[in-house]
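Input structure tokens:
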């Protein structure tokens, strides 16, 4: 038996298997191009691997290879491409085709139809051991097998090494999560028996005595096999990435209940987070226009529209986080557009209140409060200071005021509450900076 080293050389290369067709997807398109959570499996895997610190990604293509290569070029993905002409013979042929161009001693083999997180990849890359497989011990939480097939079951020894790997195991401790760091020479040696699948190739490694250590996954992962599994995974993605830890009561109870279903629907349309930002802005402006008329029924419609616009404002962030495309640029654009939308609603209430001197005065105070709450949050981003009078709370008050026909009182309430919250926030912020 080959002795396992206490420490292993750094793993810098990932081999991404994207050659399969995926018949259970009920589509003629390559499985790697299936959109999951707003982006293709291929693009998602590439992004996550780069975030995890993988320096070189080799993608093995086969079925409709030109389509996959075109997608890689169109998205400018930082990968190398290897074409496996024998892809129909099984995943083992794709692994071997990729390893032939990998010059490194160690390599991370990634199933291209899996969803996984960067933190799990980082832990796997740092794991000591000659060969290391990612496994999930919580067998009831994983998504493999949603198509009716059993996932690859894993029997572990007391020291954490894999004793057996097979979907038909009656006794098992974990399931295979689709990520395996391997010693390239071990794989090539085990391949002499001409196995068809990557599973059989790893089973041959165990038979030949090559140690396979396990490493637990902690985050969300999934084996994508059917359209039904895509929908199930996207729901879990939204639950994990959609809501923010800083969400207030209104965001949790009202806004997320509206934005969540919309986000999951829009993930299949290719709508970008920036487009969702623009959509929420337009809806809020139209609602403000209805409120500004001062007509009772139009104000009711406008108030409902303000709530809808507030909920839609969460869609862009949810799309960005679920698709893994969140950026500082997108967050900045969203913040700036929100301020214009806030001011539009304030102006609408002023006009609905008759544009009197009193209305303008309270409107100015409300606008200042709205802007300063956002400013305090931006300045205190690196502290624990969080104001209570969040945007969704302010817009809800504005909406209620419009619906019940008391626009001036909406301005008064927001002006008083927001500015008092700002004073409280400034005190806390200065104290935090001093400490």
């Amino acid at each position: 038996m080959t002795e396992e080293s206490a420490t292993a050389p750094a793993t810098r290369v990932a081999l991404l298997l994207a050659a399969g067709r995926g018949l259970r997807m009920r589509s003629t398109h390559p499985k790697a191009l299936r959109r999951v959570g707003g982006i293709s499996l291929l693009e998602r895997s590439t992004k996550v691997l780069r975030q995890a610190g993988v320096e070189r990604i080799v993608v093995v293509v086969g079925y409709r290879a030109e389509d996959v290569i075109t997608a890689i070029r169109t998205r400018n993905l930082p990968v190398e491409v290897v074409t496996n002409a024998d892809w129909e013979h099984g995943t083992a042929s794709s692994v071997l085709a990729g390893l032939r161009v990998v010059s490194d001693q160690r390599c991370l083999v990634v199933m291209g139809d899996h969803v996984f997180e960067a933190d799990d990849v980082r832990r796997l890359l740092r794991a000591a051991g000659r060969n290391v497989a990612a496994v999930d011990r919580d067998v009831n939480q994983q998504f493999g097998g949603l198509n009716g097939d059993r996932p690859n079951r894993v029997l572990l020894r007391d020291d954490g090494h894999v004793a057996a790997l097979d979907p038909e195991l009656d006794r098992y401790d974990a399931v295979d999560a689709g990520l395996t760091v391997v010693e390239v020479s071990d794989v090539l040696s085990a391949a002499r028996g001409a196995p068809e699948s990557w599973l059989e190739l790893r089973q041959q490694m165990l038979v030949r005595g090559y140690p396979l250590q396990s490493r637990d996954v902690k985050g969300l992962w999934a084996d994508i096999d059917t359209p039904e599994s895509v929908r199930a995974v996207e729901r879990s993605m939204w639950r994990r990435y959609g809501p923010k830890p800083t969400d207030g009561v209104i965001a949790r109870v009202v806004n997320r209940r509206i934005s969540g279903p919309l986000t999951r629907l829009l993930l299949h349309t290719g709508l970008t987070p920036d487009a969702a930002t623009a959509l929420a802005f337009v809806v809020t402006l139209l609602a403000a226009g209805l409120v500004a008329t001062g007509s009772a029924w139009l104000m009711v419609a406008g108030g409902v529209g303000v709530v809808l616009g507030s909920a839609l404002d969460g869609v862009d962030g949810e799309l960005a986080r679920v698709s893994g495309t969140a950026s500082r640029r997108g967050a900045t654009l969203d913040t700036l557009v929100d301020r214009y939308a806030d001011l539009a609603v304030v102006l609408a209430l002023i006009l609905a209140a008759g544009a009197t001197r009193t209305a303008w005065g309270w409107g100015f105070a409300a606008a200042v409060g709205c802007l300063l709450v956002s400013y305090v949050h931006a300045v205190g981003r690196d502290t624990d200071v969080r104001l209570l009078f969040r945007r969704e709370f302010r817009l809800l008050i504005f909406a209620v005021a419009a619906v019940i026909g008391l626009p001036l009182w909406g301005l008064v309430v927001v002006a008083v509450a927001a500015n008092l919250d700002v004073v409280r926030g400034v005190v806390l912020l200065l104290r935090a900076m001093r400490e």
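The radius of gyration is 27 Å. The chain is about 50% helix and 15% strand.
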